[in-house]
UniProtKB/TrEMBL annotation:
Names of the cofactor(s): heme
Residue positions binding heme: 433
Cellular-component GO terms for this entry: membrane
GO MF term (any one): oxidoreductase activity, acting on paired donors, with incorporation or reduction of molecular oxygen
Record keywords, A-Z: Heme, Iron, Membrane, Metal-binding, Monooxygenase, Oxidoreductase, Transmembrane, Transmembrane helix
PROSITE patterns found in the cross-reference section: CYTOCHROME_P450
Compartments, record wording: Membrane
Keyword Electron transport appears in the UniProt entry: no
Primary location group: membrane
Record InterPro entries: Cyt_P450 (IPR001128), Cyt_P450_CS (IPR017972), Cyt_P450_E_grp-I (IPR002401), Cyt_P450_sf (IPR036396), Cytochrome_P450_fung (IPR050364)
Protein name: Cytochrome P450
Source species: Lactarius akahatsu
């Protein structure tokens, strides 16, 4: 939770003392009246089980504690669903794959929207950030565009720092046809990450009280520093995304037509009818979403290689048999590397890249298994429980074991738990990640190439316990606590062959 002074949270960042006192008094009276009315309504319903919290304010302590919410103990205490009410806003924590599918997929007509974010949605992004666009015509337009481009056939042409720069280079190439980043200080990356940090801060529960009391958005701008900041950020970020898009547009006008997401969006303008600012934000925010999650996934995979050397050895054996040591692996090899493909699926299942994915929100009252789910309920999918369901993944769910995705003949299972991906990480229903095939393809070729050339070991004398519970939360994504890693070439020709392969793309 972002810690902020109360006047700043509410929006009274400046103004005279008398003005502030009057506004705060009005705020208190409206808060009390609104809370009583909203909480009284919730208690007369048969809500799912969960902690009831304190009178008037509800469970404001737990709702801002993601570690407590995500703990498997909550499922033991409350079952497959846990309902929390804080300041009149209801939140449903889903701790079962069955419930997630029943609600978010089978009833997707009323569970496909996003929470109404006022600060980050209405003001900072004007509801143009793909991940939080409310369900409606704009989202349908955006998804039609992304479905055509991020298809199954799409292939993107300390260790955490290398993964970070590499992941962003991939996303910049896919989205804008930009060259690989030479440094983490590249101005392009600095701008994007500045936007992402602000976006992630604003989306966190408890950052702005206006998310719980929407009438606060009508406070005059001169009393609401957060309104002035977020409006200025929208202008600043729009100019950035339009500049990136404009570079591709200029290239197309000069006859330079190289494949990228931006180029395809520009060329399909007459088909989809997006405005200039919609195009800029669509491409820009898919870039912002993909860079951090890909980097995090590779960091968790490397951690698994240190923790499970036998898994690494089996992957080395498969690569030697299928690819050999005369050349690096290519995308054409991936279908013939079932253990590597299973390792990618297991990485996405086992690693807590996003302990809670972006929440859904219900757009109508609903009844499910005898309990009432009010309209506007925020629905969070608890990935730390869903991806560790023993009924789906077996008793060794805590272990990193790619063989769970292989059948008795060593082939990758077509489905697991009724899902093609075999895990829940890409989300559900109409909000499933549109870039999931790009993500799997990127991580597949990265893992195959790294393991073909290198062996990863934990240095002698390294301190600290390795495990998925030791993590650092960064917005909606989680990264491992920094760890030491020793990289050893598997054979003497590996570096020269990699450089030779790289020269083909220069």
């Amino acid at each position: 939770m972002v810690t902020t002074q109360l006047p700043e949270i509410i929006g009274f960042g400046d103004g005279s003392d008398s003005d502030r006192k009057a506004c705060l008094l009005a705020t208190f009276l409206l808060l009390a009246g609104g809370l009583i009315a909203r909480l009284a309504q919730s208690y007369i319903r048969n809500l799912p089980p969960g902690p009831r919290g304190l009178p008037l304010i509800g469970d404001v302590i737990h709702i801002a504690n993601p570690e407590w919410l995500a703990s498997p103990k909550r499922k033991d205490e409350y079952g497959d669903m846990m309902y929390i009410n804080a300041l009149g806003t209801g939140m449903l924590i889903i701790n079962s794959q069955r419930v997630a599918v029943d609600l978010l997929e089978k009833r997707s007509t009323i569970y496909s929207s996003r929470p109404h974010y006022i600060s980050v949605g209405d003001f900072m992004t004007q509801n143009l950030a793909f991940g939080i666009v409310p369900y409606g015509d704009r989202l349908r337009q955006f998804r039609r565009v992304t479905a055509e481009i991020y298809s199954k056939s799409t292939n993107p042409s300390a260790p955490e720092r290398h993964f970070h720069r590499h992941a962003w280079s991939i996303m910049l190439s896919v989205n804008y046809d930009l060259p690989p980043l030479e440094s983490e200080d590249d101005p392009c990356l600095v701008e994007i990450e500045d936007h992402l940090r602000r976006f992630m801060r604003e989306i966190q529960p408890g950052t702005r009280l206006v998310e719980y009391f929407p009438w606060l958005k009508y406070v005059p701008d001169r009393f609401a520093k957060w309104k002035r900041d977020t409006q200025n950020w929208f202008i600043q970020d729009s100019l950035m995304f339009q500049r990136f898009l404009g570079k591709v547009k200029d290239d197309l006008a000069n006859g330079i037509d190289r494949p990228s997401f931006a180029a395809t969006v520009i060329k399909s303008q007459s088909k989809h009818g997006l405005s200039e600012v919609e195009k800029a934000w669509l491409v820009g925010h898919l870039l912002a979403a993909g860079g951090d999650t890909t980097s995090s996934g590779l960091e968790w995979w490397l951690l698994a290689m240190l923790m499970y050397p036998n898994v690494q050895a089996r992957a080395h054996a498969e690569l030697d048999e299928v690819v050999g040591r005369d050349r690096p692996p290519t995308f054409a090899d991936i279908p013939f590397l079932p253990y590597i493909r299973a390792m990618v699926k297991e990485t996405l299942r086992w690693s807590p890249i996003a302990p809670f994915s972006v929440p859904h929100a219900s757009t109508a009252d609903d009844w499910y298994e005898g309990t009432f789910i009010p309209k506007g309920t925020i629905c969070l999918q608890n990935m730390g429980v869903l991806n560790f369901d023993r009924e789906v993944f077996g008793d060794n769910v805590a272990e990193f074991d790619p063989t769970r995705y292989l059948d008795e003949k060593g082939r990758v299972k077509m489905q697991m738990g009724g899902r093609e991906e075999g895990h829940m990480t890409f989300g559900f229903g109409r909000r499933v990640c549109p870039g999931r095939y790009v993500a799997e393809g990127t991580i597949s070729i990265d893992i195959a190439t790294l393991l073909w050339a290198m062996r990863f070991e934990r240095p002698e004398g390294s301190q600290g316990e390795l495990g998925v519970r030791n993590r650092v939360q960064s917005g909606l994504t989680a990264h491992p606590v920094p760890f030491e890693c020793k990289v050893v070439p598997r054979f003497t020709e590996a570096e020269a062959l990699l450089n030779e392969g790289l020269s083909m793309y220069k």
